[in-house]
Amino acid sequence: MTDFGLNSWTTGDAVDLSTDMRAAAAAGYRFVEFRDWKIERHLANGGTLADLRAHAEELNVAVLSVNTLDDSTLHTGDELARLVERCDALCAWAR
Predict the structure, then answer these.
(1) Helix, strand, coil content of the chain in percent (nearest 5)
(2) pLDDT at position 2, please?
C-alpha cells in the first residue's frame, strides 16, 4: 500500500462511500477522504458511522478526513453561526 488516498469527490454523486472504500483498497490506497454529503446520504439511508468505520477496517483503509466546508471564509452573523454549526457536525463525524 502507498500513502496515497482517494478523495470521494473524485468518484462523483452516484457512488456511495462503501464503493469509494472498495475502490481505494483495490487501487492500493491507504486512505480515503469522505465527502460530507456522502456521509449524510449514508446516514439518511439508515447507515451509521460505526458501519463506515467497520467497513474501512475490513478493507484496511483509514479515513483521512471529512471534507468539505465550502465557502467558509469571510462570513459574519447568521451565516457564520450556520458555518460553525456545520463545522461542529463534521468534526463530530470525524471523531
Answers:
(1) 50, 15, 35
(2) 55
